[in-house]
Amino acid sequence: MDMADDPAIVMRRVEYGDYDLILTLFSRSRGRISAIAKNARKSRRRFSGRLELFSILHPELSLPKSGALPVLQEVRLLEPLENLRTDFIRMGYAAYWSEILCLWLEEAAPQPKLYGLFQEMLRGLHGGVDSPDVLSLICQLGFLTLAGLSPGLDTCGGCGAALGETRAGRIRFDYGRGRILCGTCAPISRVHPMAPGTVKTLSWLQGKDTVSARRMQFSREARQEGLAFLESFVAFHLGRDFRSLKYLRSVRRDVWPGFAVEEGLGECRLLRHGV
Ligand SMILES: [Zn+2]
After folding, report:
1. Which CATH number belongs to the domain containing residue 267 in this structure?
2. Which residues have C-beta under 5 Å from ligand 1, the single-atom ion?
3. Mapping DSSP to helix (H, G, I), strand (E, B) and coil, where does residue 50 land?
4. pTM, entire model
């Protein structure tokens, strides 16, 4: 990618009319933008395979007339990241992260740090060296930090005791407080129990850059419990059952036969509006 590139990632593709596609892009310089690719489905030559989901491209857009979508004029494919479309697990994670960002990003509001995180995570997922579930821990925690929604994992939300001083046994995360609880303090809402090792892992990850985080080895328990917690926490804050998460979980169940931890997201939504 050279300096003249203004990269954007394809987060969503929707068929429109008989011939067109509407794309939702995450542009490094412009944030979320929607654009129409005219005749993309009519003529194979027009954009020939350069508008695939999760690829990184340089779009040239026309200035929109008022109330209309910008029209995609030309596209230069920068990185196809084709492994994200041929492997079910990788496709599941890429679709889940995209759905979170499509929902959370505001139209035409640049988020360069979030763009950088998302691009790094997709490249990692495509590369095949990193474990996809570890990348999803890093991606979700990074998103929550940049969105100002970080879960409080270091001290008790009731009395302020540090994580290391809490009694042995499972640690509860209190959704109402947005923090963990020690063994003594009472919750004010629904709780999510986790092993102390999982909470320590997530807390450690919150303070680390992605390079150090990707070098770390995680226990199977920390990965599975950490994902179950973060997926529930993101849904709680964004007030949404993510369609892609249902797909991801069904694929993951085949890979991890023992992975049965699933949250009732409807419950999260009730809690969000009730407390
Ligand atoms: Zn306490």
Report:
1. 1.20.1440
2. 156, 158-159, 161, 182, 185
3. coil
4. 0.90
